Amino acid sequence: MTAVIYARYSSDNQREESIEGQIRECTAYAEKNGITIVKHYIDRAISAKTDNRPEFQQMIKDSDKKLFDIVLVWKLDRFARNRYDSARYKTQLKKNGVKLMSATEIISDGPEGIILESVLEGYAEYYSADLSEKVIRGMTENALKGKFSGGAIPFGYTINADRRFEIDPLTAPFVAEAFQRYNDGQTMREIRDWLNEKGIKNKRGGPMTFNVIQHMLSNRRYIGELKYRDVLIPDAIPPIVSVELFNDVQEKMLKNKKAPARRKAEDVLHPFCWTMKWNSP
Predict the structure, then answer these.
(1) Sign of CA dihedral 224, 228, 229, 231
(2) Residue ranges of the domains in the chain?
(3) E strand or H helix at 125, and its extent?
(4) At what angle do helices 172-183 and 210-217 cross, to 10 degrees?
(5) Cβ-contact 236, 146 below 8 angstroms
(6) HSE toward the beta carbon, residue 276, CA cutoff 13 A
(7) Which residues have C-beta within 8 Å of that of residue 130, sequence separation ≥ 6?
(8) Rounded to whole angstroms, how far apart are CA atoms 205 and 11?
(9) How many angstroms separate the CA atoms of 78 and 4, rounded?
């Protein structure tokens, strides 16, 4: 009998050693049961809640080539964490003459094995849903406390050891001046060029772009607001600009957004107006 090992760790458990452990236990199981391992398929930092896993999909495709008899996993939840995907891909493997086996879960081929496998798959789905709920709850709690919950750190801020936002004394003044310059009549492109001339880089180390400036001038974190999902917390982080200046900038951005549309409409109508005037008696 030949087998391939499918190993995976999720993005919430990014440990290379977990892959090594899975392969080690699967290999030991194969040696004990006279199974020859012919290949490893490994997905790193990808959740089993989705079937959009490159190595997993390649393994399913390869199962149709009669290259192996068994897909060996450390636990069934490495294969899938929802019952729909599990049933769908196990059916496809079975159609291709390939069996799914777990190295650590003893599942018989009889009726009892069917029940046990269903229970294990149901628990894997429950665990995944429960973990997601706990993560969301924890991140919501962090937001309520004004703590950083992940993602991109806004330009002008740093995150301290307690995961709280702090104003960056080196970059925050440029944020404040960018708001003031726009309020005084400068365009986003002019502000972009000014920052690039100053040698100011974005958070990724690249040059400032129009989109970065647009996002900066509309980011409500700069007035101290913090939002996670549907939870909005005012005065959660130290503000860089005043609410009055921020609101003035939003009004100007809205007017400037409408102005090109009006000019475009006038440009379209202009030839007709000229024709009517020229042809009038």
Answers:
(1) negative
(2) 2-139, 157-269
(3) helix 111-144
(4) 90
(5) yes
(6) 5
(7) none
(8) 25
(9) 14
What pLDDT sits at residue 138? Answer: 61
Token pair for 43: 């997905």
User: How far is 95 from 77, CA to CA, in rounded Å?
Assistant: 21
Question: What span, in angstroms and rounded, lies between the C-alpha atoms of 3 and 70?
Answer: 4
Residues 209, 222 contacting (CB under 8 angstroms):
no
Locate 210 and state its tokens: 């129009």
Q: According to the model, what pLDDT value does residue 78 have?
A: 82
Q: What are phi and psi of 209, to 5 degrees?
A: -125, 170
Q: Which CATH superfamily is domain 2-139 in?
A: Resolvase, N-terminal catalytic domain (3.40.50.1390)
The phi and psi torsions of 72 (rounded to 5 degrees) equal: -105, 125
CA gap 72, 6 in Å, rounded: 6
Query: What is the residue type of 246?
Result: F
- Please return the burial class of 194, using the count of CB atoms within 10 Å of its CB with bins 0-12, 13-18 and 19+: middle
* pLDDT at residue 156, rounded to an integer: 94
User: In CATH, which of 3.40.50.2300, 3.40.50.2000, 3.40.720.10, 3.90.1750.20 is domain 157-269?
Assistant: 3.90.1750.20
pLDDT along the chain (281 residues), means of 10: 91 63 94 96 72 88 94 87 75 91 75 57 57 61 69 90 92 96 96 95 89 94 84 86 96 84 47 47 50
Q: Which two tokens stand for residue 139?
A: 């991140």
User: Which candidate, 217, 197, 219, places its Cα nearest to that of 208?
Assistant: 197
Instruction: Give the pair of three-digit tokens for residue 81.
Output: 């964490």
Q: Which of 129, 219, 134 is nearest to 172 (CA)?
A: 219
Please give the Cα distance from 130 to 133 (Å, whole number): 5
Helix (H) or strand (E) holding 145: none
Q: How far apart are CA 189 and CA 211, in angstroms?
A: 10
